[in-house]
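Note to self: user wants both folds in one dump. Writing first protein now.
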Amino acid sequence: MANTLTADLFLSVDGWAGSDGLPGYFGYFGPELEDWITNETAAPQLIVMGRRTYQLLASLPAEAR
């Protein structure tokens, strides 16, 4: 059985993904994006992360995960 790996990258054209006072999703959050996020996160997921991220998240108490 083959698995599919989907990488979802949400960043600006110039690669800068942050700014003081800029709302989440660069201000483009709306009903279509909300529906897409809801549908994508409702499906079972296998998350791939690096060692440092895994260690950081694994160190959180169970109730915080």
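First done. Writing the second protein, which came from a different request thread.
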Amino acid sequence: MFSTSADVLNLVLSLCIFVLTFFLCLAIYYFIASVHKIHKVIKRVEIGVTKAEELVGIAKDKLKNSAAYFMILGEIAKKAMEFVREKQATKDKKKNSKAK
């Protein structure tokens, strides 16, 4: 089967090349799998960031609309306080005029 030491050397070299090729292919496979997983994570993060941006946009819109309503409610409260003061003032005037 092996007539010279060169035959043994060639067999050992071919086995080493085969093993090296196998491990290189395995390493490339794991590298590609890792890159794929990283890509999935990045996609999920992008989706999360997009949803967060949408949520912030919706919150801004709601706050803008709420601010307009608060201004209207503030004006209504201001008018109501003026109305109560006027009623109180007229009530006080009536009490003062009856007391005299």
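Dump finished. Worth passing along: The radius of gyration is 42 Å.
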